[in-house]
């Protein structure tokens, strides 16, 4: 799975996602500073899933219109410490999510 970490997700979370997935940050992918629709459009075709903590993204964009899936992480904060407990559920979600879907992951 080709995974893109949104800018609101700490880069340190990438080490929590095992090597079976190719993980890049928005900055590494040249997508830094892009918001919502522009980010999804730029990621489309290059990544299978966008991982974000932006709770509003699914309401602001019609994800089904893009060839990418979105995982929204829900935690107390967007620190690695707060997000780390979500990783097992995130990994299970990466196994089942399909393009156009939005799945929220919480503890």
Question: Which SSEs are present, and which pair or pack?
Answer:
Blueprint: E1 2-5, E2 22-25, H1 36-43, E3 49-52, H2 57-60, E4 69-73, H3 80-83, H4 87-96, E5 102-105
Parallel strand pairs: 1-2, 1-3, 3-4, 4-5
Give structural notes.
With 107 residues, this protein is of the alpha/beta class. The chain has one domain. It is 24% helix and 20% strand. It contains four helices and five strands. Strands 2-1-3-4-5 form a five-stranded parallel beta sheet, covered by helices on one side. Helix 2 (57-60) links the parallel strand 3 and strand 4. The longest helix has 10 residues, at 87-96. The mean pLDDT is 93.
Question: What's this, in brief?
Answer:
With 107 residues, the chain is an alpha/beta fold.
């Amino acid at each position: 799975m080709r995974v893109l970490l949104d800018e609101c997700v700490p880069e340190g979370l990438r080490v929590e996602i095992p090597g079976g997935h190719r993980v890049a940050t928005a900055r590494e992918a040249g997508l830094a500073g892009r918001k919502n629709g522009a980010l999804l459009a730029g990621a489309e075709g290059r990544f299978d899933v966008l991982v974000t903590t932006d709770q509003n993204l699914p309401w602001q964009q019609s994800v089904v219109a893009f060839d990418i899936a979105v995982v929204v992480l829900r935690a107390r904060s967007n620190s690695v410490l707060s997000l780390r407990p979500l990783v097992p559920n995130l990994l299970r979600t990466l196994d089942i999510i399909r393009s156009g879907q939005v799945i929220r992951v919480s503890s």
